[in-house]
Amino acid sequence: MEKLWSSVLATVSAIGLVCNPVAAISIGVSPPRFELKLDQKKATTQIFKVVNRDSKPATFKIYLMGWTLDEKNQIKSVPPSEQSLAQWIIVNPLQFTLAPGKTQTVRFAVRPRVKTQPGEHRAFIFVEEIASGDDTSKKQGGNVGVKVVGRFGVAVYGYVGNVQRVAKLNDISVNTKSNPMTASFDISSQGNAYVRMNGQYTIWQAAKYPGANATKAIAEIEKPKPKLPDGVVVGGSLPKKPVLPDTRRQVILRLPNKLAPGNYVLDINGELNGVQIDKGIPFTVPQSTATTPQPRTQPNSNNSSRTIKIRPQSN
Fold first, then answer.
1. Where are the alpha helices (DSSP H) in 101-217?
2. Which of 12, 33, 60, 240 has its CA 20 to 30 A from that of 283?
3. What is the structure's pLDDT at 191?
4. Using CA atoms, how far apart are residues 134 and 264, in angstroms rounded to an integer?
5. CA–CA separation, 208 vs 213, rounded Å?
6. Rounded CA gap, 47 and 68, in Å?
7. 305 lies in a domain?
8. Residues of the chain with pLDDT under 50
């Protein structure tokens, strides 16, 4: 059940495809992402499910938004137009109330109103939880204030024509001066659809590093206490933030803890849309920026999904 449902706090002010929740909200949505062909003759109905994981009844409403990613990889809303995927999506129901532990099936279909342009079209279907009137009503001149508890964004990608994902990994670098330390993946998306990484990273003590060709993916690396090879300090999953068509972006991996002074290698076992990434990036942690680590794995940063804080994965 934990694998099926995921929940993320969403607030209006901070937008990002993969978010760091400020606090958990009691909503689960599955699946968190859809990828659809829009040039089929007949539209098909899609479904996702919303579950109320709170101990009290909750009311939800649904709305849509077109989006893109800015230069800082933050989600930016796109004004509606006749070519907006959000304008073509029909959702039912648009509002509902769930008792504790209950599930609502939400159906949607994409019905373009004009001839669709080739390429990738994007929209979010937001499931917004609204606090009950008993908890948040504030009467001001006869008006009742409505408090939004959180939002969960279901990403919808629509494609017209042939989908071409063309990715280029320009560079990987490690910044030991940032807090926390980070690795930056310089990625270009040169096709007509987004690209993203998948796989694992590990940080090795340089003296025990066997070479990029000798390392392999580690089973269950996201568990609290995975079995790590001798010489591996820490490991986790690569960030799965998408790089949109015809853009070049820095995808940032936050390393989970500072390291003791010394020489290390950031080892990558992954792929970028089918192109293998098998690299070792040496780096040195100087005395002035180091602290003794408590080895642990990186918390799962996916999102799926791709779902949101609004900020709005998983994004």
1. 133-136
2. 240
3. 95
4. 56
5. 14
6. 23
7. no
8. 1-23, 136-146, 291-315
CATH number of the domain where residue 181 is located: 2.60.40.10
pLDDT of residue 22: 36
Nearest Cα residue to 235 out of 250, 246, 251, 220: 220
**What is the structure's pLDDT at 137?**
46
Q: Across the strands, what pairs with 144?
A: 139
- Tokens describing residue 5: 């449902």
**Same domain flag for 102 and 58:** yes
Check if the beta carbon of residue 314 is closer than 8 Å to that of residue 304. Answer: yes
C-alpha dihedral over 11, 17, 21, 25, to 10 degrees? 60
For tokens 């090795």, name the residue.
204
Tell me: do 126 and 180 sit in the same domain.
no
For residue 245, tell me if it sits in a domain: yes
Name the 3-class secondary structure at 134: helix
Residue at 263 is within a domain: yes
Locate all alpha helices (DSSP H) within the chain, ordered by sequence: 85-88, 133-136
The structural domain count of the chain equals 2
Give the chain's length: 315
- pTM value is 0.77
The structure tokens 């009742």 sit at 144
Residue that finishes a domain, picked among 143, 160, 177: 160
Residues 132 and 197 in one domain: no
What is the C-alpha to C-alpha distance for residues 2 and 6, in angstroms, rounded to an integer? 7
- Does a structural domain hold residue 32? yes
Q: Which of 160, 180, 205 is the last residue of a domain?
A: 160
Farthest-apart Cα atoms in the chain, separation: 71
Predicted pLDDT of residue 257: 72
Range of the domain at 197: 167-289
Query: What integer best gives the mean pLDDT of the chain?
Result: 82
